[in-house]
C-alpha cells in the first residue's frame, strides 16, 4: 500500500478520459483512411487481394471461413460496438443521463437526426437502384466526430463534446437494429435461438456474481458465432453485451476490504495472498469499467483504424469523380449528412425548447448546438459497414465518396462555426458555447454555512468543497493549490472530513483534533498545521499543535480522549458516502464532482467555467422574462 490513498477519480469511469482517447485516435483513423486511398490508387489489385484473403477456423468437421475484410467488419468490429454499448451504459448509470429527463432532448434529436438524412437520401434516390442503401446516410461516427471536434474547435468546453455524445448515444443503437433487421440476409432462426440462449446464460452468470472474464468468453464466442451463421450481423452481440455491463463507482467499504487484503499480503507475502489481493482490487471496479479499460484503447487505436484501412480504398481520378458526383447515391449521402444532421439537431433543440417553454432545452448554448449539428455530419464506421452490406461495385464506391465528402464538408462547417463564435465578446462567447442550463448536483448535502467549515466570502459565485484526510500525502500536495485558488476574491472553500483509517491509522484522531480546535474557534489554523505535518499526527504531536495555537490544552486533550467530536466526523463520512466519494482528495465545484487532476491549471480552468455558468445562471431568469 505504501501509504498511498486510493483516489476514486483514478478508478471511476471518466468521460474526459473517454474523450481524450477518441481525440487521440482520430489522427490514427485519418492516417489509415489516407493510407487506404493511396494504396488503392497505387495498386488496386494488391489492395483488394489482401482483404479478400481467406481465413478459416476448423474444429473437427466444423469449419468457419471468411475473407479478411469480413473478419474485420463482422469480427473485430464487434469489439468496437461492445465499447459503444459500454459507454452508453456508463452514461445512463453515472453520466448526465442518470437524470432521465435529460435524455428526452438527446434521444429525440438522435432519432430525428437519423430520420431526416434518410428522408433526404430517399427523396434523391426515389425509384432508383440505390434506394436500398438508405441506411448509409443515417449514422454519425461519434468517435471520429469527437476527435475532429477536439482538433477543429480549440477551446471548446467539455460540455459541447458531452452534448454531442449524449445526442448520438441512440445513433449507434438504432444503426445496429437497422443492420440486424434490414441488412442481414438469409436469416436462419435456429442459430438466433442459440444466440439468445447464450446471451441468457451470460446474464445468469452475471446474476450469480461471477466476475472472471474466462467464464463469459466461451459463451460470448458462441453467441457471436451463432449470429454469424444465422445471417444477422454479429456486431449486435457486442452492443448487447456492452449495454448489460453495469457501471458504478467503487464503494468505500469495498476499498477498505481490499486494504485488509493488502495488509494480509504485507504480513505474509505468499503467492496465494498476492493473487487474492490482486483479484480483490480488480473486483472493486465495475464490469463496465474493467471492460472499457481493456477494449477501449484497442478499439480506438487498432480496430477502427484497421477497419478504415480495409474499407476506405477507392480509385480517385477525374472520370470516376465525375461519375460519382453525378450519382444520386453520392449526393444522397452527402446532403443527408451535411444538411440533414445540422437541421435535425438544431431544429429539435429549438422545437423542444419552445414547446416545453424552456423546461427541456440543450445543455449547451446555440453555438454548441450548431457545432454539434455540423460535426454530426462526419460519418465513417457504421456508414461504410452498411454500405458494404447494401452495395457492390460502382454504387459501393459512390457511397464511399459521399461518406468521405460529407466528413470533409462537415469538418469545414464546424471549423467555421467555432471560428465565428471565437470572434464574439467574451460573455457572449461563453453563453453561446455553454448556455445557462443548471448542472446536476452530486454533492449531498449541499453546503451549509452554519455547519460546514467555510473559508472565503459567503456570496462567492463558486464553492470548492474538498473531502480530505489529514494524513493523506496527496491532500498535503493539494493544499498549496487550494491556497493559491483562495487568492480569488470570488471563491469560498469548504473542508469535509473523510479519514481513511484503513490506510491512515492516525487520520481519524487528526480529524477530531481539527474539530476540537474548531470548538475553540481555530479550525483553519489547526487544519493548516495538520496538513503541513501530515506525517506527525500522534496524540503528543496534536497536543503540541494545540499549544502552538494557544488553545486550552486540557480541554483539547479531554475532547480527544472522550471522542467528543466523533459524531461530527461521522456526519461528514455519511455525506461522502451519499456523494459517492471513496478516496481523498476529492473535489466538488458548485456541487458538481470534479474528475481529473487537481493541479492549479486544471482546477483553475474548472473554477473559471463554473463561475461563467453561475453568472449565466443568474442572468437567465431575467433573459427569459
Short description:
It is built from 26 helices and seven strands. With 625 residues, the protein is mainly alpha-helical.
Verbal overview:
The chain folds into 3 domains: 16-184 and 233-249 and 286-433, Up-down Bundle (Na+/H+ antiporter like fold); 250-284, no CATH class; 453-619, Glutaredoxin. α20 links the parallel β4 and β5 (491-497). It has helices at 15-42, 44-51, 68-93, 104-124, 142-152, 158-167, 169-181, 189-207, 213-230, 235-243, 252-267, 271-283, 287-311, 318-324, 328-355, 366-375, 381-390, 393-422, 426-434, 473-485, 507-518, 523-532, 539-548, 553-561, 566-578, 600-624; strands at residues 54-59, 62-67, 453-455, 462-468, 491-497, 586-589, 592-594. Residues 1-15 and 621-625 have low confidence and may be disordered. The strands form 2 sheets. It has a 5-stranded mixed sheet with strand order 3-5-4-6-7, with helices on both faces. The protein has a two-stranded antiparallel sheet with strand order 1-2. The protein is mostly helical. It is globular. The protein contains 26 helices and 7 strands. The protein starts with 14 loop residues before the first helix and ends with a helix. The longest helix has 30 residues, at 393-422.
